[in-house]
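Bench log. Compound arrived from synthesis this morning; before running ITC I wanted a structural hypothesis for how iron/sulfur cluster sits in the protein. Inputs:
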Amino acid sequence: MISPVLDTLNRPIHDLRVSVTDRCNLRCAYCMPAEVYPEDFAFQPKEALLSFEEIARFTAIAADLGVSKVRLTGGEPLLRRGLDRLVGMLVAIPGIEDLALTTNGLLLPRFAQALKDAGLHRITVSLDSLDPEVLRRMSGRAIDPGEILEGIAAAAAAGFKTIKVNTVVQRGVNDGGIVDLARYFRGTGIALRFIEYMDVGTMNHWKRGEVVPAREIVERIGAHFPLEAQAPNYRGEVANRFRYMDGQGEIGVIASVTQPFCGACSRLRLTCDGQLFTCLFASTGMDVRSDLRGGEEDVALRERVRALWTRRSDRYSEERACVQSARRGKVEMYHIGG
Ligand code: SF4
């Protein structure tokens, strides 16, 4: 059993989030607003993206340092061709016990079975509203909630037992629909996760007043369906869990703004072009692509990553109030993959 490397706040390296592409088939206003990222926006060229072999090599190095959980993200990861091949490579790495994917669900009807067959363990689908008009406004695309629900159904039909739905809640935009979402997913075995609206990147013109605090989300839903707080499944779990007292399942709230959880944050992030970030709100990353392509030995790269994590002291969400205005040029959400 590897003892994970610890950072300056004694947080073990445990999770690796891998963005496999910066492209997306949606234009969510809080991540990749359409007015900034038009259809013909010049995303990273193919040769700039880490190959599956490079991602697998890096993941094996991270596993040697203590990483056991990997999440594939984007942009929209299902836009990366042959993703099931990468899944097969990652689940075969010793030490990688949990492999998950975050997707907007639109392409799941085409790929869910292949991902399942390749060994993917869990799927999280982003769905911000069941109201077609609200979803169109938030996603910047003429999509219908039914298309995403079809994706969720395809994941269930493919045999995924653990399916979660993530909803970013923005006051005055989609908060009027959180009880409808709770009502829709109650009793389905699909865990709904409500995410406090965050100041990720530099594009979403974030306002504190548009944050609906986790406490308020729980109160609103609890007024219809009584809830009871649950203990976390493990240290570092980001969601605060609440079960329906009538046994119809559970919800979670990810309260990065009002109840920051930096103290147990064990996440390392790898972008699709080989930059390593130690915090979602960081401005600069460490390049590992040139190492992976430049003939660098694994042991040398591993020591560089160990040194990066060992000197890590990020806790942006805890410091937000006093650092937010000073923090310039934060990495964009679609680039770091959330
Ligand atoms: S703000 Fe940074 S350190 Fe804090 S939980 Fe998020 S990613 Fe981790």
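What the model suggests: Residues 15-161+255-336 form a domain with the TIM Barrel fold (CATH 3.20.20.70). DSSP finds eleven helices and twelve strands in the chain.
ITC booked for Thursday regardless.
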